[in-house]
From TrEMBL:
GO terms for biological process: DNA integration; DNA recombination. PROSITE patterns: TYR_RECOMBINASE. It comes from Escherichia coli. This is Integrase. InterPro entries: DNA_brk_join_enz, Integrase-like_cat_sf, Integrase_catalytic, Integrase_recombinase_N, Integrase_SAM-like_N. Residues 51-96 form the Tyr recombinase domain. GO terms for molecular function: DNA binding. Keywords: DNA integration, DNA recombination, DNA-binding.
Length: 96
């Protein structure tokens, strides 16, 4: 427990590194040493923070589309209006 606290507080490691260290300790004590440490199972696992997606305002979308012309503008409007990915739009055919 002290090691995990040291990792988080002193070393300031990322959440994934902290979780990897905890998994390594659980494996080492459980499988290699065949020692059951119930308190180690109860240690809280840090969760990575979820980033909010960057969303354009309607004015920003209009400005971006204003720079495009012809087929490029049409394609961008199609992608934006439907939420398609670029690869999905490129795979479209007239029969679709």
């Amino acid at each position: 427990e002290a090691f995990l606290s040291w990792l988080a507080n002193e070393r300031k490691v990322s959440v994934s590194t902290h979780r990897q260290a905890l998994a390594a300790l659980l494996f080492f004590y459980g499988k290699v040493l065949c020692t059951d440490l119930p308190w180690l199972q109860e240690i809280g696992r840090p969760r990575p923070s979820r980033r909010l997606p960057v969303v354009l305002t309607p004015d920003e979308v209009v400005r971006i589309l204003g720079f495009l012309e012809g087929e490029h503008r049409l394609f961008a409007q199609l992608l934006y209006g439907t939420g398609m990915r670029i690869s999905e739009g490129l795979q479209l055919r007239v029969k679709d």
